[in-house]
Amino acid sequence: MKIKTKSLCPQCLAVIDAEVYEVDGKILIKKRCAEHGEFVDTYWSDALLYHKFERWKYTGNAGIRITNTENGCPYDCGLCPVHKSSTMLAIIDLTNRCNQRCPTCFANAAAAGYLYEPTMEQLRAMMKLLRSEVPPCPAVQFAGGEPTIREGFVDIVKMARGMGFAHVQVATNGIMLAKSERFCRELKEAGLHTVYLQFDGITDEPYEVLRGRPALNTKLKAIENCRSAGLKSVVLVPTLVKGVNDHQVGDIVRFAAENLDIVRGVNAQPVSFEGRVDDSERSSGRITIPDFINALEEQTNGEIPRDSFYPVPFVVAISHFVEAWKGMPQLELSVHPHCGAATYVYVDDSGKFVPITEFVDVEGLMEFIEELAEEMHGSRIGKLKAMARILTRGKKFIDYDKAPSEFDKFTLTDILDKGNRDSLAEFHRKALFIGAMHFMDPYNFDLQRVQRCGIHYATPDGRIIPFCAYNAIHRPSVEQAFAKPI
Ligand code: SF4
Ligand code: SF4
User: Fold this and answer.
1) Kindly report the CA angle at 42 between 39 and 48, in degrees rounded to 5?
2) What does the pLDDT look like over 364-395, one tens digit per residue?
3) 386 CB under 6 A from ligand 2?
4) d(Cα 413, Cα 161) in Å, to the nearest integer?
5) How many Å is the Cα radius of gyration of the chain?
6) What residues does each domain of the chain span?
7) Is 5:447 a contact under the CB 8 Å cutoff?
8) Top-level CATH class of 59-298+437-481?
9) Going along 329-481, which residue ranges are E strands?
10) Whose Cα sits closest to atom 1 in ligand 2?
11) Up-side HSE of residue 204: CA atoms within 13 Å toward CB?
């Protein structure tokens, strides 16, 4: 297998030809810069999983086009007409100040030498732009620096809710949440849905390496304060670094399961490299999505097997069905299949993990849903007939003998339409989302991935910029254009 693509020279950031290819059961990316030589890196460490995920590659549509293509991807971001996915989650940096000094972070104000803090008016304009996309961006995440130290943060959350975002979350180190239960309560009252909590492990060692201090107690206190304030959704976000915390992924998921009343999921982020990193450092430190998936299988003694994971665009059929059902354009999760992986895991009363793939034929179900959507789109069947088909044929995708008891009480029609929402909610309360997204660095950068990116920054200059393009290319120029002296 050999795929031609484009990447970046990690030294001069020029766009250069690259090749993604298979060697010894792994997928590598290779490229040569005329000036800086050849670079080889691991793209995906498991070829079998790579090929499985490849099946769900899907080309979507981006909702907004505000720039031309003068300089070529990824220098035209805006979104430009070449882009292939709408915004599924928008990121807005509220400040580059931070109350933590992570040894590997160069994004904070002290290291950058300037202050970047969009004004309230700029924030409003950025959110307005996101809501004007077609379909409108449904979810916003405030980030930074550390967004919770931004003055007026609670009001910014309220503003986002007022502007119609269905989901508002904050990516945080948790220090401010750990300090004050009252602050957590204010955020809950302002309408914050999810705390996306940096959570690198269940001992202090990973924090000492990655954050420069033992921070486990801060995380535990932050979770406790969220719980007593009534915030109902925390997602644990470990940055995975080989040899530092990859041996803790099973324990992190078990910790999540022990705190199911408030922890809704774990979303791992294999580390991306910053600056210049030599070959040996990269090959010893590089960790990719399959490493996470395989480690989790091993560390849960096979309870969460690698086969339970699917790429993000696996669920595109659901968007097509809802679109046909409602007659309105729906957001498609059309990001590149090698950007992210996810599964959904039920935790039974004994604490055992039961992935949804154990009792639902998810591939058959998605094919069935896609077929229904196509028939409804083509007006070959109406809603009544579609519903009848779901009732008669939908059940065959579920193995009720293996399913948790809450599952017995509802059918597919309950999920798709009104019905027994209580048992669905009960099932959801006992289930965990487990995912991973591998943000790219200039070494493993693939233009085919970034062109399908669905995680987009909104910037004060009125642009919408895919996450990995922003961090590899655009961040310094955007921030400096709006920078103030510290
Ligand atoms: S990353 Fe997307 S928006 Fe940016 S230049 Fe490439 S195709 Fe256009
Ligand atoms: S943020 Fe990066 S890794 Fe995630 S979807 Fe976008 S391009 Fe892919």
Assistant:
1) 145
2) 999 999 999 999 988 788 888 888 888 888 88
3) no
4) 30
5) 22
6) 2-52, 59-298+437-481, 299-436
7) yes
8) alpha beta
9) 340-347, 353-355, 431-437, 455-458, 464-466
10) 467
11) 7
d(CA 284, CA 446): 21
Measuring from atom 8 of ligand 1, which residue has the nearest CA?
80
Encoding tokens for residue 121?
Answer: 């008016």
Contacts with 473 (C-beta within 8 Å, 6 or more apart), sequence order:
8, 13, 74, 75, 77
pLDDT, tens only, 153-165: 999 999 999 999 9
Distance CA 1, CA 477 (A): 38
Of residues 335, 336, 272, the one with CA closest to residue 10: 272
Give the list of residues 6+ apart from residue 128 with CB closer than 8 angstroms, or none: 163
DSSP symbols for 70-97:
SS-TTSS-SS-TT-----SEEEEE--S-
One-letter identity of residue 57? K
* Rounded Cα–Cα distance for residues 156 and 256 (Å): 29
Nearest-atom number in ligand 1 for the CA of 83 is 7
Which residue in 151, 153, 150, 144 sits closest to 96, CA to CA?
A: 144
- Residue 271 tokens, joined: 């580390």
* Closest ligand to the CA of 333: 2
The reported pTM is: 0.95
